[in-house]
Automatic annotation (TrEMBL):
<dbReference type="GO" id="GO:0046872">
    <property type="term" value="F:metal ion binding"/>
</dbReference>
<protein>
    <recommendedName>
        <fullName>non-specific serine/threonine protein kinase</fullName>
        <ecNumber>2.7.11.1</ecNumber>
    </recommendedName>
</protein>
<dbReference type="GO" id="GO:0030295">
    <property type="term" value="F:protein kinase activator activity"/>
</dbReference>
<dbReference type="GO" id="GO:0035556">
    <property type="term" value="P:intracellular signal transduction"/>
</dbReference>
<keyword id="KW-0418">Kinase</keyword>
<dbReference type="InterPro" id="IPR011009">
    <property type="entry name" value="Kinase-like_dom_sf"/>
</dbReference>
<dbReference type="GO" id="GO:0004674">
    <property type="term" value="F:protein serine/threonine kinase activity"/>
</dbReference>
<feature type="binding site">
    <location>
        <position position="75"/>
    </location>
    <ligand>
        <name>ATP</name>
    </ligand>
</feature>
<keyword id="KW-0963">Cytoplasm</keyword>
<comment type="similarity">
    <text>Belongs to the protein kinase superfamily. CAMK Ser/Thr protein kinase family. LKB1 subfamily.</text>
</comment>
<keyword id="KW-0808">Transferase</keyword>
<dbReference type="Pfam" id="PF00069">
    <property type="entry name" value="Pkinase"/>
</dbReference>
<feature type="region of interest" description="Disordered">
    <location>
        <begin position="353"/>
        <end position="387"/>
    </location>
</feature>
<keyword id="KW-0067">ATP-binding</keyword>
<feature type="compositionally biased region" description="Basic and acidic residues">
    <location>
        <begin position="353"/>
        <end position="364"/>
    </location>
</feature>
<keyword id="KW-0723">Serine/threonine-protein kinase</keyword>
<keyword id="KW-0464">Manganese</keyword>
Length: 401
């Protein structure tokens, strides 16, 4: 005899049983969640926090210096992952060597390096940044910045490059994705994995390779030149970056790598009509196809567009103040270690969880925030889904290098 069941229930019969198992849907208010426990963990003197982002080389987490209480970012890389990336381990070691020697307010700072031989991990403790230029472009309405804001960041980029070149360092991968920002709007040049230290005694800036992003490569690289000026490579990439910041476009594009490089070498530069004449002259000087005719950093720095104070005619693209990256993530881990035994367990329902997610999505849509993950050192922290507590093994041994 068949029984009619309400639409919110269904019946499942086991072929070997005469009894029917009834599964009933319950209200979301009756499903109770417990937020995951935050496992207190130390790497050297640094208290580990939430994940900021993840890239091909590894992940980046927030951390806190337990001696100075300063906020840092720690890049965590596995050696087995680096071995799968062409020149992966070499690039990391190169970046460590370079950053240890560099000290400038527009260059990312490296504070400590730890090696965990048992787990095959490398930890790079670096300056904490709240966002990057690429993330700001993605979040902006027209994928570009107001002229006055682009000017503010570009001048800092030129200062940072000027310092690098004075130390004989060619970055070779200048682009918005490698330009980070602190909470006080200080630009930091990051990602020195493909950078090159010149021979100071040689007195030349000649290099033979460039492994930077294709959209930002100059004609001499796209055309396969065997030897070329390293400093002029950075000038070209900085010009492409400025073009991108002010127009939301790239100076040269192509449907594939071959077409892109062909356009970079042969296609004439086309300026967006909305750019003012002074800015156009700067871009034309930085994006000259012949390296010897390209502006030097000194001429770029003294150009009228860089020296001029631009009025704030448009609203700035924010650093992302509504994002939870601006609130330190270490506190729950400290609370878990010192106070959890005395505090009441926080519980919430499925209904409350859904409401919270809906509010976050609406808020994101209204602010035009792009929630996709970004590569590199400092990217958006993933939203953690509430799950049961997962035990994290403590680090067996870390030695500082």
């Amino acid at each position: 005899m068949e029984r009619d069941l309400p639409s919110d229930r269904f019946m499942e019969l086991d072929a070997g049983d005469d009894d029917a198992l009834l599964i009933q849907r319950i209200d979301s208010n009756e499903i109770i969640y417990c937020p995951p426990k935050r496992k207190y963990k130390l790497v050297g003197k640094y208290v580990m926090g939430d994940k900021l982002g993840e890239g091909s080389y590894g992940k980046v987490k927030e951390c806190l210096d337990s001696t100075t209480l300063q906020r840092r970012a720690i890049k965590i890389m596995k050696r087995k992952t680096l071995r799968r990336i062409p020149n992966g381990d070499q690039n990391v070691q190169r970046e460590i060597r370079l950053l240890r020697r560099l000290r400038h307010h527009n260059v990312i700072s490296l504070y400590d390096v730890y090696h965990n031989e048992a787990k095959g991990k490398i930890y790079m403790v670096m300056e904490f940044c709240v966002t990057g230029l690429q993330e700001m472009l993605d979040r902006s309405k027209d994928k570009k910045l107001p002229i006055w804001q682009a000017n503010k960041y570009f001048v800092q980029l030129v200062e940072g490059l000027e310092y690098l070149h004075s130390r004989g360092v060619v970055h070779k991968d200048i682009k918005p994705g490698n330009l980070l920002l602190t909470s006080d709007n200080m630009l930091k040049i990051s990602d020195f994995g493909v950078a090159e230290q010149l021979d100071v005694l040689a007195g030349k800036d000649e290099i033979t390779t460039s492994q930077g992003s294709p959209l930002f490569q100059p004609p001499e690289v796209a055309g396969g030149a065997r030897v070329f000026s390293g400093f002029k490579v950075d000038v070209w990439s900085a010009g492409c970056t400025l073009y991108n910041l002010t127009s939301g476009k790239y100076p040269f594009e192509g449907e594939n790598m071959f077409r892109l490089f062909e356009n970079i070498c042969e296609k004439p530069l086309v300026m967006p009509e909305e750019l003012d004449p002074v800015l156009k002259t700067l871009l034309e000087g930085m994006l000259r196809k012949e390296p010897s005719e390209r502006l030097s950093l000194n001429l770029v720095k003294s150009h009228d567009w860089c020296c001029k104070k631009h009025p704030r005619t448009e609203e700035e693209v924010s650093l992302g103040g509504d994002d939870d990256r601006h609130s330190i993530s270490i506190v729950p881990y400290l609370r878990s270690n010192y106070y959890d035994s005395e505090s009441e367990e926080e519980l919430f329902t499925e209904h409350q969880l859904n409401e919270s997610r809906n509010q976050a999505e609406c808020k994101s849509e209204m602010s035009g925030t792009d929630l996709q993950e970004t590569r590199g050192a400092h990217t958006k922290r993933r939203r953690r889904k509430p799950t049961s507590c997962i035990s994290v093994k403590s680090i067996t041994s870390c030695k500082q290098s």
